[in-house]
Specification:
about 170 residues, alpha/beta, Glutaredoxin, 7-stranded mixed β-sheet, 6 helices, globular
Length: about 170
């Protein structure tokens, strides 16, 4: 009987601890809600705040790694979309590359002209619930997430083009 009491008490305490941690965890980003806070350094080492980007123009925010084939395809398409938008769209990328030299070479080789932020510590993985690369967010001028895409293919490409037109 005493062992059963200890078991029940330990289960209740464990549940309480997990609930306490969950209360402090940031909620997962959702369509129709503001983006989580994001402050990371760019390639020049200057800290950039996502809020500065989302309020000026619609924003495509992509989380990527330069070594991923699907990320490479999306980055090329985003560069083209960015160039063709005539300044009506911003694109911002967050790289999970560990080696800045490899990332810089990739950006130069592929003529990526939109800003790249670096997340070597992977701090945005939890904030943005990134499980697969690339993961892409479409954010309106008010900083509200309108679309979320996981991975990249022709359907995502078409959806990004349509969203940019709207």
């Amino acid at each position: 009987m005493i062992d059963m009491k200890k078991l029940v008490i330990s289960m209740l305490l464990t549940g309480l601890v997990f609930c306490s941690f969950a209360a402090f965890a940031e909620p997962a980003p959702k369509i129709g809600y503001p983006t989580p806070i994001l402050e990371l350094a760019n390639l020049e080492g200057k800290t950039v705040n996502l809020k500065n980007y989302a309020e000026a123009k619609p924003l495509i925010l992509v989380f990527f790694a330069s070594w991923s084939k699907s990320c490479q395809t999306e980055m090329a398409d985003l560069q083209q979309l960015h160039a063709n938008s005539k300044g009506n769209l911003k694109v911002l990328a967050v790289s999970f590359d560990k080696k800045i030299k490899n990332l810089s070479n990739y950006i130069t080789k592929n003529s990526i002209l939109f800003p790249i932020l670096i997340d070597k510590k992977l701090s945005s993985l939890d904030k943005f619930q990134i499980l697969i690369l690339p993961t892409t967010f479409c954010i309106n001028r008010q900083g509200i997430i309108e679309k979320i895409f996981v991975d990249y293919d022709d359907n995502v490409k078409k959806a990004l083009i349509e969203w940019q037109k709207s």
